[in-house]
Hints:
This protein is mainly β and about 270 residues long. The protein has helices spanning about 40-55, 150-155, 185-190, 195-205, and strands spanning about 5-10, 10, 55-65, 70-80, 85-90, 105-110, 115, 130, 160-170, 175-185, 210-215, 225-235, 240-250. The protein has an eleven-stranded antiparallel sheet with strand order 8-7-6-5-4-3-13-12-11-10-9. The chain has a two-stranded antiparallel sheet with strand order 1-2. The protein is globular and about 50 Å long.
Amino acid sequence: MAERQHRVGGAVVAGVLVCWPVSGCAGGEAGADGRGGDPVAALHAAAGRLVEAGSSKTRTSMEMATGGTRVTIRGEGVYDYRRQVGQLKVMLPQDPAGQSEHRPITELLAPGALFMKNRGAGVPADKWVRVDTATLSDGNLVTGGATDPFAAAELLRGARTATYVGTTDVAGIAVRHYRGTADLALAARDSSGANKASLGAAAKGFATAHVPFDAYLDDDGRIRKIRHRFSFVNGQQQGTVAVASTTLLFDFGVAVDVRLPDGEDIYAGKIAEG
């Protein structure tokens, strides 16, 4: 039986229908961090620090809420920042009636592409669905139900303003907390490889090209946690949808073995609409 395709603002979100308006948050002004450095410069350098680290494990969550109802999509996996590939297992929320749970979706992240298995919607269980992320109006910052960790980091290259909030800890690691706003167009300009096209698509597709964020960097300048708030227009309800996406990074240097599917394993048929 074909699984329903659900949408956030017209974008497929890992097979679940969600249209949740949420208010965004504003960023701060630029200033010195607790070590006398420039917060914006530290944020611009964060993606490069991840490439130096090589890889990490990751946990993700994507929160959507409306009318007092909240839905969260969670994921976990690994990412190789040098190859810009990763693998996530994405756990979908219950059906609106709360009667059954969806099977986890396996996602492979690659430059310019998102591959999904257990996609449902008429796709055979042993086949992958391939999506060109540059064709998505959100650049795959939202569509897969998880933000690509390296795209999340490169979005900080578009930071215009930021404030140093103070020190805290994330999972027992001491970090410096920054808050600010990133410009998607600037991030696309300064990003590497396929993220130029993906973030460029998001800059055109979102309701605003300015993305509020909270970023937490360790003593090596690596991102340990980052939270973005995305906003775009939902054409069906003619309203603005906002999504909060949180990415946690840990266990840097972990072995990552991501193998992209062969052509014969990619589904070429039509995905059922419901």
